[in-house]
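User: Could you check the structure of this?
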Amino acid sequence: MDIQNKTVLVLGGWGLVGSAVCRQMMPEKPKRIIVTSLLEQEAKEAVDLLRTEYPKAGKNFFVPWWGNIFVRHALKDTARDAILQNRDTRGMLIDDLLDELTMPVLERSSIYQLLQQFKPDIVVDCINSATAIAYQDLFHVAREVRKALRAAKSDKDSELHDHTERLLATLYMPQLIRHVQILYRTMQLVGTTTYVKIGTSGTGGMGLNIPYTHSEERPSSVLLSKSAVAGAHTLLLFLMGRTPDAPITKEIKPTAAIAWKKIGYGEIKKRGKAIELIDCSPEQGFKLDATLKLHDEKLMFKSTNQRLQSVYIDTGENGVFSRGEFEAISTPGQMEFVTPEEIAESVLYEIKGGNTGHDIINALDNASLAPTYRAGFMFESAMREMKRLEKEHKTHSIAFEFLGPPRLSKLLYEAYLLKLVYGSVDQVANASAKSMSAKLEALIRENVQLRSQIISIGIPILLSDGKTLLRGPEIKIPPYRGENELKITEKFLNAWAHDGWVDLRTKSMQQWKSRLQIILNEVTAIPKGDTSSRQMRNNAYWDNFREIDPGKIVGWIFSEEEHGKRMKA
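Assistant: Sure, the predicted structure tokens are below.
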């Protein structure tokens, strides 16, 4: 497509990728670029920067727009927490999510208003939509609901209680996530070597215009949920395929109807029950009034004492179709179909090590944008600039607790404390765990600013006695699970200290001595004079251990000690 003189809309234009996309568009001479972000300040900041970089583009070339595209236009500038805390706006949000997609629902959405306003020829969506949606923490809200239900004992038998619990039990993502977690762990334990999933696109390979639906909505929300879950399942398997101790993971995803099992004549059954034929003669027809009941058990229909019988084609899990239905769905340009034998052949070939070209996991591996040489080449310059600024401002950049998990921040700060007290890996290796514990605690007691930085990001400090905890108003570990007060046991305390507390106890220091000795031994084991590409973490990598580098050491811990190493590029 020729971009020249076209209107380009960049969703998430303030972000890192969005800004780069805007710059990349400039040589193509678009008509204008709409730059969006969640906050007004962000959108205007992005546009101001672009106008500075491209002064000849014209004052109205870059256009800022801001707001939440996932809610209606009237709420686009309202913080999500504020929407959820207000009963009226919360009701609006639920209506927009769950009601049928009518024109009023469409027209009041912020993204509809945005596109109607600018009518872009090209839309580049740089918003991390999965993060925006998933990081609302469905699990936390569900726990709050369960806690409220348990507290409302008087309503234990109410319809509201029952319906709410049914809603919690029907949520898609928790079910899918738990299924994959259990599957992975179990296959890992029993030694399964290969896992092949026969997946689905949810629409038989058709698009959002799929005409086959069980409601007036086209496509129905239920059908799209099926596709969304299918896609989420594929991405979870994609991650499983990148896990070193998982089985070889593949997915064959047919994008057509699957047929057939048999062709015959007989009773037509729905959910295992025969379809009883009933009659409603014109004389017994219902007069349409102000309301229409979709289901009414009180109404009496005349039974013909017969059951629906016809010629059918059995497509297995997808049910039986009439000749007309099967012909319509299989005609060129519709869903068409693939035979189960063809799917089975692909499965067998993949299991035997062949490459059918139909493994979705392999396709994602090859199509996804992996780490690049350019980024690796630029890494050292980024490190040099950050170190220069640390020196200039007389500070050290250790952890902010944005990346997570809290264990990362805990380990980085523990390694940093060792660096401040001992300087080099050799000095730690030669010190006693007891003296390490005492010296690190002395540093924490004396250095108010350092202590404040640690506890202010939600990382508590457990002193050497194992009983005194330095903390702020918020702690990241243990995570909130619906209960604000937790019983302290030795088992829990050790788990919390492991997961996200700076641990100054002697046994923690002993663990640091052990892991640093392993690193020293790894380097010592490298033959002298070996300058080949075989060894990555050699003396040069560790800068001859002149000082402790928290980032490198914690990277080693995650890769080697905790087996969290990246498997594929």
